[in-house]
Specification:
Cro/C1-type_HTH (chains A, B); homodimer; 434 Repressor (Amino-terminal Domain); mainly alpha; Helix-turn-helix domain-containing protein (chains A, B); Lambda_DNA-bd_dom_sf (chains A, B)
Chain lengths: 82, 82
């Protein structure tokens, strides 16, 4: 698996984690967006791993989901040894 | 403390954590940059919290430091209730 696939996969795993946490909290996309400075349609893209988001968005998602930022990265991920 | 201070503080805490991990591994900026696709002068800026980095850079830093991405976010951080 080459470098870029790895990065895209990382982005997708992060997105899946966001969705998992949102569902756990029984929040719709709109409800989550109202808890942080993010648009619900953007959050939908983040959950599909379509956006290479920035730290400021990680911050907003943590705030909206009321979890520490490290929880957003709590998923299994193996770096492929090149 | 207003919203933006919070975000800048978050960025700085993240940067401090990167530096801490790099020192723990006894790596210079150049040595770390050789382990991932990042320029050493950029890494120096990240460590000072000067850049709102993207997930792809989080990925590279984790690879270079050989730690799971969630370790990069393992620092104390309190969201200020607005």
């Amino acid at each position: 698996m080459n470098e870029n696939t790895n990065k895209v996969q990382f982005q997708q795993l992060f997105g899946t984690k966001i969705k998992e946490l949102r569902k756990l909290k029984k929040l719709s996309l709109r409800q989550l967006s109202q808890r942080c400075n993010l648009d619900y349609s953007d959050i939908a893209k983040y959950e599909k791993g379509e956006v290479n988001i920035q730290l400021s968005t990680v911050f907003e998602l943590s705030k909206g989901l009321e979890v520490h930022p490290k929880v957003l990265f709590d998923f299994d991920f193996l770096f492929n040894a090149d």
